[in-house]
Amino acid sequence: MSAIAAAKKRQRSSGERVLIGAALVTAALVLVVPLALIFAFAFREGWGAYLANVLEPNTLHAVWLTMLTALVVVPINMGFGIAVAWLVTRHRFVGRSLLLTIVELPFSVSPIVAGVTYLFLYGGQGLLGPTLIAAGFPIMFTVFAIFLVSLFVTAPYVARELIPLMQQQGTADEEAALSLGANGRQMFWFVTLPNIRWALLYGAILCNARVMGEFGAVSVVSGAIRGQTNTLPLQISLLFNDFNVTGAFAAATLLAMLAVLTIVLKALLEWGGGTAH
After folding, report:
1. What letter does residue 72 receive in the DSSP assignment?
2. What pTM did the predictor assign?
3. Fewest C-beta in 10 Å: which of 11, 92, 223, 242?
4. How many whole angstroms separate alpha carbon 56 and alpha carbon 60?
């Protein structure tokens, strides 16, 4: 019996090694090699050319606008996600299923379609556009249009992370806090929020990554005006179309580094939270 168990253990170990190896090879081909190629093409003309392309004013403005969009959109969608998750998991009401469907809608709508919809709504020939333009508040082809479509395409991320967790946790802790005399604000800050903080963080990370990398919807509503409404993905596309391949890959390294920085920040926050306990 021991020989049979040992043989099964060896077979299991061999299978695990094969799966781990396959996962590492796949990750290298899909993630590491493309990332390495981006940096290789960006630096192929040397550090001087790389820095010149990175410090080009339109590229710097695209970086700033991308980060500004994330700073505006992510906190709003965090608040929206918390509110929706609270409403769905703590209350039963008519239209609850419809609300969940509406929250999921951005996942089923192409970003380009979303951008065109906003164009038909707020554009110069759209439903509300002429009124807004006459009032001196044009929306399309401005930074506000980028904010709007980015809010739409990233709306479900935080809510989708919070709803399953809050359903699983139930309401026992919150009811206990209320029974001990806590008011609604105290209950949220000292009971609900600590219980959902990691799911909230993960949803915010996903939302941030999508905001920084969004191309389709933003390309429709921004007008891709150099130095004004170009986010980093749009700037990369324009540089590539201008046959400035080195500049396009240099800008792409910035987007890649922003993504890596986001992941590292998430890991550090999780590590800090883990050691705090």
Report:
1. H
2. 0.84
3. 92
4. 6
